Structure formats: structure tokens, C-alpha cells
Amino acid sequence: MSADQIVFWVFAPISIGSAIAMLFQRNAVHAALFLIVNFFTIAVFYLVLDAPFLFAVQIIVYAGAIMVLFLFVIMLLGVDRDEVLTERVWWQRPAAVLLGVGVFAELFVAIRAGVGFATKGADAFAETANRGGNPQALSRVLFRDYLFPFEATSILLILAAIAAIVLAHRRRRAITRAERDAEETAVLEPEVVP
Amino acid sequence: MSTPIAYFLLVSAALFTIGTVGVMVRKNALLIFMSVELQLNGVNLALVAFSRMHGNLVGQALTFFSMVVAAAEVVVGLAIIVFVFRRRRTANVDDLSVLRW
Fold it and tell me: What residues contact residue B66 under an 8 Å CB cut-off, 6+ apart?
């Protein structure tokens, strides 16, 4: 058994286990923490699959930035409130599990027919595709073949940032003179409590 | 590397399926969002595995783009959830039925 097989068989159960734990977790913070574990195991898979650049990006962007954003919003919305588990449609949960089993069976059949369980990775990946190091080779692909999509993503990111600001910004309303006067009179003449 | 590529694809399929079930079962908008992230990660893993299988870096480049789009999607989606929460004081998707007829 080679090293990458050992790594795979150690991390695959952790990956799927943390995903299932996230599914059954009622507390949002605990679910987020399980998701972080899952993201780390996926990063390890990237390392095994000879993608060290994506390994770093996965940890920095997903386990770092995106999950911090999630935890921040959980905090904003209130940590202590648990999920309401009453269903409007009683058969929704069994139907979801059934559909999930169906999707997995379909994917399993597709993988077996399309890839097969004997297919290994391409030989000499480090010398051909990853020539000169993975970040260098990936940047050659990104900036040569996919330059226009790469530039387009920058517009996408700016648009997303602007959209988030527009959505989350609370406009401070100007206080009119009438309101201020009303407030002053309210302070001067307190309402008579019946 | 001696692990068959199909094993990675199976893990990726399992993660995608768990994410799908999560989207259908969970009620909190945030947890639905996390399940969507899980689905995205499953697909990313499949792309990197295919990249390794075919011996070129196109799959990794696609994963890179998918991560950028996911980051943008998370930013906008979480802003929408915060916005809705401010208006309606709830993040439960069953209570948000204004757009339903």
C-alpha cells in the first residue's frame, strides 16, 4: 500500500463523516465547524491529486475566508437559536433521503461506466502537466488559454462586493424637523399612562 | 499515484449527494447555504480528479474559476440572508413565502 492510498483511506472516512455530521447537526456553529473539517480533508485530497496550488487556495479561501464569513453571519443572526424542525410537508424528509440515494446510485453507475475502477492517474504528471511546478504550470494555463474568463472574474468579484454593500448597508434616515420637535415635546410632556 | 481515480470521484459523488439532501432537508437558510458549499466542493474535487486522470491542468483551472464564483456567490447570498433577516426577523425558509403563489 503506497503513501497516497494510506492518505486516501484515512481522509475519505473523515471527509464523508464530517459531511454527514454537518447534515445532522442542529446548531449552526457546530455545522460550520464540521464543514471546515470537511474543507480541510478536501484540501488534502487536492494535495494527493498533485494540485498543491489548489490545496493552498482551498485552505485560504474556503476554510479561511468563506467560513469566517459564515460564522460572522451566524453570529449576526444569533448563535443560540436552534433550527425549527417542524415540517410543513410530512413526507419531505423521507423523499429527500430517497432522492439522495437515487442520485448517489446514478453517480455510482456513471462513474463505473465512464471511468471504471481500474483507471489510474496519467503517468509522469509532475513532468508533463505540472512541468516547472504546479503554480507555474497552472498560471500558464490561466493566463494563456483562459485569460478572458480570468479577467471576467475580476468584474464578477467587484460586482459581488458592490452588491453586498448595497444589500447590507442600512441607510440612515434623515431626521425631519417635525420629528425632532415631536421628540422634544414628548420629553417635556411625558405621556400620561392610564 | 496508485489510488484509482474512481475512488476520488466516489467521495466527490458522496459529498455532492449529502449536500443535495442537506439542501432539501434543512430549514435554516444559512445551513442550506452550507449544503450548497458542500455540493460545490464535491464538484471541485471531481474536476481536480479528472484533471489528474487526463494529465492536463484544465480541470484545475476550472476549479479555480469555480472557487472564485463560489466566493462571489457566498458574499451576495449571505448579504441577502442578512437583509431578509433584518426585514422579517427569521432565517427559516418556510416562513419566507412572499414570492410563492
Answer: B40, B43, B44, B47
Reported confidence tier of residue A99, pLDDT bands at 50, 70, 90:
very high
Q: What does CATH list as the number for A1-85? A: 1.20.120.1200
| Domain encompassing residue B69 | 5-89
Residue B100 falls inside a structural domain: no
Within a domain: residue B98? Answer: no
Burial string for A41-74 (b: 16+ CB within 10 Å, else e) reads bbbbbbbbbbbbbbbebbbebbbeebbebbbebb
Q: Is the pTM of this model over 0.90?
A: no
**Residues sharing a CB contact under 8 Å with residue A30, sequence separation 6 or more, in sequence order:** none
Cα angle B26, B38, A59 (rounded to 5 degrees) comes to 135
CA A76 to chain centre: 18
Query: What pLDDT, on a 0 to 100 scale, did the predictor assign at position A85?
Result: 67
Largest alpha-carbon pair distance within chain A?
Answer: 87
Q: Which of residues 34-53 of B touch A (CB under 8 A)?
A: 34-35, 37-38, 41, 44-45, 48-49, 51-53
C-alpha grid cell, residue A85: 424542525
Instruction: Give me the pLDDT at residue A118, please.
Output: 85
CATH code of B81's domain: 1.10.287.3510
Do residues B17 and A23 touch, judged by C-beta distance below 8 A?
A: no
Question: Which residues of chain B have a CB within 8 Å of the CB of A167?
Answer: 76, 79-80, 82-83
Q: Tell me what percent of the residues of chain B surpass a pLDDT of 70.
A: 99
Joined grid coordinates for residue B74: 457566498
Q: What is the mean pLDDT of chain B?
A: 90
